């Protein structure tokens, strides 16, 4: 199957606020997903608030719809973000390319960088966080703990800036070297740097006060950059997508 024509990317049934960041000639593309938009629908009722507002096959891990001319279309989802997390999310226009890129993820060849707004001020500017996590399901949802676990997690941490106003907050850069469920949120919380708006692992009192003062209840975690090199059609291709930091991350409170 050939890569989608350039016009394909301008007529997708995207959810409100979803923006195309970049795409290459092979059909690999990146979107900027707003907080509150699902990576994909879990049920028909979720379709209006998912990345693409159409049907989704969990077996194929692909969206499917008919275009204006009645022709069937497909778009393969390559990675997922929690609904509350914003930023870079990848898709592929062909199944062959999707298999190729998913193999890069499996081989841990994909570099991902996140930005987070946390409560408090770090004591270190740069650090490599290493933890043993415990991941389990609770009430049908995944929950992760940074104690009594045996699943290794590593994240490169960098302090970017601090603001002291009504709240003490810091903007930090997080580059995970492993991809554990809720890894960044749990590792931040363990170091007394809970991510602002984290309703599961964060500081609930500070979250309530922050939401009351600012009107924002979002999780302040953003997938800022994704980059890697992949082999396809006999050639090597470099790919990089950067999602600008949402304005609320730089607001002062």
Describe the SSE topology:
Blueprint: E1 19-23, E2 28-33, E3 55-57, E4 62-66, E5 72-77, E6 86-92, H1 95-106, E7 111-119, E8 126-138, E9 141-145, E10 151-164, E11 168-176, H2 183-190, H3 204-214, E12 221-232, E13 235-242
Parallel strand pairs: 6-12
Antiparallel strand pairs: 1-2, 2-6, 3-4, 4-5, 5-6, 7-11, 7-12, 8-9, 8-10, 10-11, 12-13
In short, what is this structure?
This protein has 253 residues and is mainly beta. The protein has helices at residues 95-106, 183-190, 204-214; strands at residues 19-23, 28-33, 55-57, 62-66, 72-77, 86-92, 111-119, 126-138, 141-145, 151-164, 168-176, 221-232, 235-242.
Please identify the top-level CATH class of the largest domain: Alpha Beta
Overall, the morphology is globular
CATH structural fold name of the largest domain = Pseudouridine synthase
How many separate helices?
3
**What share of the residues lie within helices?**
10-25%
What is the total number of structural domains? 2
Largest sheet composition: 13 strands, mixed
State which percent range the strand residues make up.
Answer: 35-45%
Radius of gyration, taken over Cα atoms and rounded to an integer in Å:
19 Å
What's the end-to-end separation, in Å? 51 Å
The overall pLDDT, averaged over residues, is 94
Extract low-pLDDT stretches. none
Instruction: Please name the fourth-level CATH homologous superfamily of the largest domain.
Output: Pseudouridine synthase
One letter per element, helices H and strands E, the order comes to EEEEEEHEEEEEHHEE
Structural class: mainly beta
């Amino acid at each position: 199957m050939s890569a989608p024509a350039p016009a394909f990317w301008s007529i997708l049934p995207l959810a409100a606020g979803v923006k195309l960041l970049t795409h290459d000639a092979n059909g690999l593309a990146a979107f900027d997903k707003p907080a509150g938009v699902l990576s994909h629908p879990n049920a028909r009722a979720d379709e209006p608030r998912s990345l693409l507002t159409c049907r989704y096959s969990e077996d194929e891990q692909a969206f499917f719809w008919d275009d204006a001319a009645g022709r069937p279309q497909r778009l393969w989802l390559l990675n997922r973000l929690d609904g509350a997390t914003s930023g870079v999310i990848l898709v592929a226009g062909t199944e062959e390319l999707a298999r190729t890129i998913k193999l890069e993820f499996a081989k841990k060849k994909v570099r991902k960088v996140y930005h987070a707004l946390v409560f408090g001020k770090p004591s270190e500017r740069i650090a490599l966080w290493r933890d043993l996590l415990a991941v389990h399901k609770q009430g049908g949802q995944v929950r992760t703990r940074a104690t009594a676990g045996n699943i290794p997690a590593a994240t490169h941490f960098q302090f970017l800036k601090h603001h002291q106003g009504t709240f003490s907050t810091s903007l930090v850069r997080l580059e995970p070297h492993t991809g554990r469920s809720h890894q960044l949120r749990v590792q931040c919380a363990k170091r007394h740097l809970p991510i602002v708006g984290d309703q599961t692992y964060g500081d609930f009192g500070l979250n309530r006060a922050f939401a009351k003062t600012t009107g924002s209840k979002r999780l302040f975690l953003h997938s800022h950059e994704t980059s890697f090199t992949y082999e396809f059609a006999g050639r090597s291709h470099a790919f990089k997508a950067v999602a600008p930091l949402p304005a609320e991350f730089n607001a002062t409170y």
